[in-house]
Amino acid sequence: MRRPFAHRLVALLALGAFAAVVVAGCGGGTGETRPAPPPKEFPQAQGKTISQLLHSSGAVPSELVIAPASQVFDTGEERYPFGVFTTGQEQVEDVKVALYFAKDGKSKVTGPLPAKLETLQTKPAYRSQNGSGPGEAKSVYVVPKVDFPKNGSYLAIAMIKGPDGKLEASRMPSPVVGQYPKVPKVGERPPKIETLTAADVGNDLEKIDTRVPPDQMHKVNFADVLGKRPIVLVFATPALCQSRVCGPVVDVAQQVADKFEPRADFIHQEVYNNNEISDGLRPQLKAFHLPTEPWTYLIDKQGVIRDRLSGAYGVDELEEAMQTILPG
User: Fold this and answer.
1) Residue 66: per-residue pLDDT
2) DSSP symbol at 41
3) What CATH number does residue 59 fall under?
4) CA–CA separation, 150 vs 238, rounded Å?
5) How do beta strands 60-61 and 167-171 pair?
6) φ, ψ for residue 97, nearest 5 deg
7) What single DSSP character describes residue 44?
8) Angle formed by the axes of helices 246-260 and 315-322, to 10°?
9) Within this chain, do residues 119 and 227 fall inside the same structural domain, yes or no?
């Protein structure tokens, strides 16, 4: 039996437990996106507490680590991304997972909430050296909607079904809702930040982009198009990312950008001044009060945030999110 996994922050911009296990390396990805299994495949909450659910389910303690890929949650429905890993830090993609949440040990459980598996892989033409190298994440599990009715800390567990059908349970780090109230939310207007363009640096994109090779999402200044055009704003640093998912995320954004431009403007904003960790955070990231990276904001032509994606996501998920700013 494994001891409960201890959640810890690796650094200011580390993506929680996901960073702690991914940074040392992960196994090869399958390159497949898999829909969520039906809820009936997992134990039903039926008014139980977390302890009662664990006792009645018959699940054995899992030898797998569930590593959340986001730390910022607000009241209402929130996306919940996470990774699944072995103790040897190999990424696991062949299990089915459902999550359960409760406000405390006496509260009724919400769940099961089955997770889909999103591949982070792109078409070969969009795979950067940052996104496809050793240690980069290859996939992410996602529960699209978790309803958090109140601020505060929540209990969380995962029920896991392996290929053999055996049911296992894993306690997860407690999400804290409302911990970062200044991070811009859906329905709000974002800060009007200035973002450097290719023209500002004489087309020397390495000054404002750590991707290898640099991406092409530096054509417009965010402040110039805010409130005039639909925008996808990506905060990520492919070469310096402590969560090891920034490279894949920027690759995904570039592939989606080439499909949706010129209907929307895609902007990649780096994280550190002069692309040096020691020089501190760029003012654009500070303006958004982001405690983690990567982050992606989808903003409509009226200048209102319609969706936000914290952590890793795949092409399918970003294309679906595009419908919030480009309906029809």
Assistant:
1) 94
2) G
3) 2.60.40.1080
4) 34
5) parallel
6) -135, 140
7) -
8) 50
9) no
Residue 4 domain flag? no
Number of domains forming the structure of the chain: 2
The confidence score (pLDDT) of residue 24 equals: 31
CA distance 309 to 235: 10
Q: Which residues form the domain of 134?
A: 16-177
- pLDDT, residue 11, reads 34
Q: Distances in Å between the alpha carbon of 113 and those of 37, 110, 163, 171, 270?
A: 9, 8, 19, 15, 34
Let me know how long the chain is.
Answer: 328
Same structural domain for residues 231 and 150?
A: no
CA distance linking residue 5 with residue 21, whole number of Å: 11
Residue at a domain's end among 177, 211, 227? 177
Q: Pick from 29, 51, 49: which is nearest to 132 by CA?
A: 29
Regions of the chain short of the pLDDT cut 50: 1-30
Record the pTM.
0.90
**β partners of residue 85:** 65, 91
CATH number, position 251 = 3.40.30.10
Tokens at residue 61, please?
């303690």
Position 28 scores a pLDDT of 38
Task: Report pLDDT for 134.
Answer: 64
- Domain membership of residue 169 (yes or no) is yes
162 & 303 share domain: no
In a domain, 3, yes or no: no
* Coarse DSSP helix, strand, coil percentages of the chain, rounded to the nearest 5 percent: 20, 25, 55
Q: Tokens standing for 292?
A: 């983690």
Cα angle 199, 232, 152 (rounded to 5 degrees) comes to: 130
pLDDT given for residue 16 in this prediction: 40
Dist CA 231 CA 322 (whole Å): 10
DSSP summary character for residue 274:
G
pLDDT score recorded for residue 327: 77
